[in-house]
Amino acid sequence: QVQPVESGGGLVEPGGSLRLSCVDPAFSFRANYMSWVRQAPGKGPEWIADIGPGGVTTRYADSVKGRFTASRDNAKSTLFLQMNSLKPEDTALYYCARGTKMQWRSSGYRGLGTQVTVSS
């Protein structure tokens, strides 16, 4: 089954940075909005960002605005999430999904995720 593959997670101290990647093998990648979603232990999924097909249009949840930046390289079918000034509350499983903030749940197309742990 075709699905995106995320990487780049790990353990980082508060205030640190990480860059996540999501390689999407779908032929339609360059035509799709894509989202980043995270799920903390014991909580439901939280949408945190989406990016338009051209990479110009981006939106962010208030919880990450000003700290996280989504980008994409359509030539490499890859989505990125640059995460700066990380906080312990950013600890979660991060995954990419097809669609906008309102569409990603119903798209049913997402990766398995990469774990980010922010701790000293």
Question: What gap, in angstroms, lies between the N and C termini?
Answer: 38 Å
Roughly what fraction of the amino acids lie in strands?
35-45%
Shape: globular
SSE string, helices as H and strands as E: EEEEEEEEEHE
Radius of gyration (Å):
13 Å
Low-confidence stretches: none
Per DSSP E runs of 2 or more residues, the count of β-strands stands at 10
Mean pLDDT: 97
Q: Briefly note the structural class of the backbone.
A: mainly beta
Query: Mind summarizing the main beta sheet?
Result: 6 strands, mixed
Q: Strand order across the biggest sheet?
A: 2-10-9-4-5-6
Helix content: under 10%
What is the number of helices? Answer: 1
Task: For this entry, give a set of tags.
globular, 1 helix, 4-stranded antiparallel β-sheet, 120 residues
TL;DR of this structure?
The protein is mainly β. It has one helix and ten strands.
Describe it.
The N and C termini lie far apart (38 Å). The strands form 2 sheets. Strands 2-10-9-4-5-6 form a 6-stranded mixed beta sheet. It is mainly beta and 120 residues long. The mean pLDDT is 97. Helix content is 3%, strand content 42%.
Topology:
Blueprint: E1 5-7, E2 10-12, E3 18-23, E4 34-39, E5 46-51, E6 58-60, E7 68-73, E8 78-83, E9 92-98, H1 104-107, E10 114-118
Parallel strand pairs: 2-10
Antiparallel strand pairs: 1-3, 3-8, 4-5, 4-9, 5-6, 7-8, 9-10
